[in-house]
Structures are given as structure tokens and as C-alpha cells.
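Many introductory courses stop at the sequence. We go one step further.
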Amino acid sequence: MTRIPSPATVNTSGGEPPRAGEGSVKATGRAVWGLLALAGLLGVAVPLVLATISGGLAIPHNDAWSYGRIAQTFGYSGHIELLGWNRSALFGQFVVLGPLARSLVAQHLFVAALSVVALAAVYDLVVTAAGRVRASLAVLIVAVWPGFGLLATSFMLDIPATAAIMVCLAVGRRALQSQSILLLAASIAVGFWGFTIREQALAAPAAVLLAAIAFAFRSHRRRNLIAIGCIGAVLGLAMVGFELWRQSYGAGDPPVIAVPENLIKVGGTVLVQGYFLLALVVSPALLLVARPWRWRRVALVAAVAAAAVAVAAVDYFGRKAFFVGNYLDPAGPYWAAGNGRPAEIFPISVWTLVVLLACISAVLLAGILVRQARSTDPVLGIFVTLVVLGNLASALSGQTLYDRYWLLAVPPLLAMVLAKRPEPSIAQVPGIELIVRRVAVAAGLAFLAVFSTAITAAGFAYDGARWDAAEALVAAGVPATDINAGLEWNGFHSAVGMSPPGSWQFPGNRSCYLVAATPQPGREAESVRTYRPFLISGEAHLWVYNEGCPAA
């Protein structure tokens, strides 16, 4: 197998050779650990604190009402009972917890621990190409992804699958570097675990195996080809066996294939919105490395084309619907889990800044991709291609695509953007340029950090307010199954889960009391509850209506 340059063979300072007296090992180490500590603080520690003080650590969030309840049943009884809201593989996420799965808090802390593993793997993926400081910056950028804090503190599948995928890719690249079949097998094993959480994780072991086959062909190593083929065959058999075992439990939630009438429109929308979302997230990295005045004609043409697309996208989608929905929304994260669309918590001025940053970053990203494409690590290049194609295929088959599905593309994209190229040394760069660049990067990071923390706080506030309103009704003597407080409450307290699967219907539940995020026209609410949409600031309301159910 072809060797990937080891970390020892590249400059790991995170940039050009430092000035004498400024780039000592200690200074570099302080920068690395400072960035990593900030990533852990903003991406994991702060969200855990917010979850604790809001009560969010002890209640289910979004789709995890089903995942958490399935896990609890397994923790108490050792049996698996599906609930009709479990389209993903899922099993690998809770089986490893054993009895600990009984506790929602333990489930959430487990995911938080996996978020640290994911961030560590991101560092390992980026450091070879970009150096230690830039790899640490990449970790921080991933940690301030809008919604990362919510995902890292709930039993959603995204972070566990991401952790498995990033470790699979990191270990796989080391296997190719060291020509180790054992490491390759370990990489694929971790990738298989990711597959048992979410099937889309298959992209990681597939990328590693395809790169390994290509390297083995180039180096004419037949033994390696045979070993790689055997590992791939074992992976295939394991996947088939797992799916047969999982399907034996029934009560699944298979995707309904509904091909859109206008494939070009749907496909174009997915790719354009996904591109601008990724550009927004990696904007600090772009502000660090982009030097458009040094670009050649092809890169400049790509940047101009991206600018034209940005203008057209703003005109077509508007500012409020500019991004893929779910966590990145002016009304707050996954508001559709409640009853009605709440009032927008982000003013249009803030959303305009977010869209503007995404558009500027998209222009810079286009030029950088043209320049860096040829030097892309093959494993990461194959992986990010599979992620894009997978998201596109999902949309073209009629599946709903969410912003969090693009999270997997961020680390390989950062590895590409931050990869070092021959550039003038720092001593040759004008001092004013260095100052402007550093201020721009710091400002971009600060903006995304505050924005992401606000989204995290908003999610906990909205979930907690609806849950508290329902618990107040229970305390007044109303049965939990007679309260409609949104997806999480309804599903978590239902007798048999959702039926038919994916229908949002819960047999045995009644909407005797409705907890709504918007007032119902022509009706008087029994009570109006007030909460702070950012936990410590703002004011929002929930309306509680007596629907007048007959006595059961």
C-alpha cells in the first residue's frame, strides 16, 4: 500500500515557518491546547451545563424520544421493543450501554463522551495535512457547528455515528500509512459499529476499503488485495446478518420512496443549500487561508460563479429559508416537534448576517476548492464524495434532508481547506495583513460560537418549557396520555409508540389538553405560560387549551 506522509514528515506548526523567537514548541503547544480546550468548552461542557440547569439532561429531545425509550426498555429487560419511529439502524447505539441505558441522563452523558471522541478523531484526520495548530482550529470549528451542542447532549444518532465514522477514517488512514492489515481490520470494525447506529456510516469503511484497493493496485501487492477483499467480504456478511437480525424485530419504519416530479429542482436545491451551509460553518478556516489576489484564472472564475449562485440563491430562497431546515432556523431548532411554529427568536438582522457570512464564505470556498482539489487525501476525498452523493440520493428518493446530515462533510472539507501549500513565510507577509486576518478569524469564530450557543440554549428552553407545561397538567391530575405537548411527550408516554410507523399517530393517546407554541384562532387558552427562549433572556409563550375530551 502507498504510504501517506507521516506527521513527522510535515510541518506541524499549523502554518508557515514562524519568526525567530515566536514559534517555539511551547508557544505552539499553548496554541494547540488552548484551541482544543475551547472546543471542549463550547462544544461539550457549556451544552452540558445548559442541559443541567434547564432540566434538558433528564428529558428526551427531538427524535430521541423513541431512541431513548427503546434503550430504556433494553436496559431494564434486555429485550428490544421498537416503537415505529426507528428508521435508522439504531441498535449499536444502545446495546453497548447495557443496564446503563435505563437512565436518560446516562444516555446523554454517553453521547457527550462520544462527542469528545469525535472531536479527537477530527484532530487526527486534519493534523497530517494542516499541522497541529490548524488541526486544533478545525476541531474548534466542528465544535461550534450550529446545533453541535444539542446533538452532543441528546440521544440522537448523529454524534455516535459521527464518532464511529471519524475514528474509522482516522484509523483507516493510519492503516494505509503503516501498511497494517490489523489496523485496517480495526478501522472497518469501527465502521461496522457506525453502520449499526446509522446505515449512512457505511460511507466511511467503504472509503477506506476503496482507497486501500487503489493503493494496493498501484503498489502491485497481491497479498494486500486478498486481505482487503477478505475484510470487505466479512464486512458485507456482517451487514447482511445485522440487517436480518434487526428486521426480525418488526415494527420498523422503512423509508417511503416518492420520487419528486422535478428531480433537477430538488437535486439543485439540496446541493446549493448544502454548499452554503458548509461554507458558513468552515468560514473561520476560509478567512485564515484565502488569498484571492494570488488565485489563478480558474479559481477566480469559480469564485465569480459562486457569487452569482449566491445572489440567485438569496433571491430564490429568501433569507429566512436560505439554509436546510431543522436546527438552523429563525424560529429555533426542530420547532416542528411542538404544536405550531413559534415566534422567530432570531431577529432578521442577525439572520441577515448569517446569510451574508455564508455567501462570502461560499465565494472563498469555491476558489480554494479549485486550488486544493488535486492534493486532497484520497480517503477523505472518497468519503466526502459518498456523503454528498448519499444526501443527494436521499433527497431524490423523496426523503427529508436535514442540516445535521451535512455535519459529516465538515472534517474532510476542513482538511482540504486548511492543508498547507507553498506560501510566503510569515516574515514576508505584511504586518497589517496578519492583523486583519487574525481579527477576521477570531471574529468569525466568536460569531459562530455565540450563534451556536444560542441555538443550544433555545433548544433546551423550548423542550423544557413544553415538558414542564405537560408535567404541570399531570400534577393537576390529567393523565399523561391525555396531553398533547409535542412529539417527544406524546411518543415517550404512549402505550405502544407510533402506529402506523412514521405517521405521528399514537394509539391510545388523546389530545384532551393541547400545549401549543402559537395561539389558536378564535379560542381562549386555559392558561398562558411564559419562558425565556434563550434560558437567560428573551420572552416566549406557550398556550394551553382544554380540548374537552369526554371522561375515559
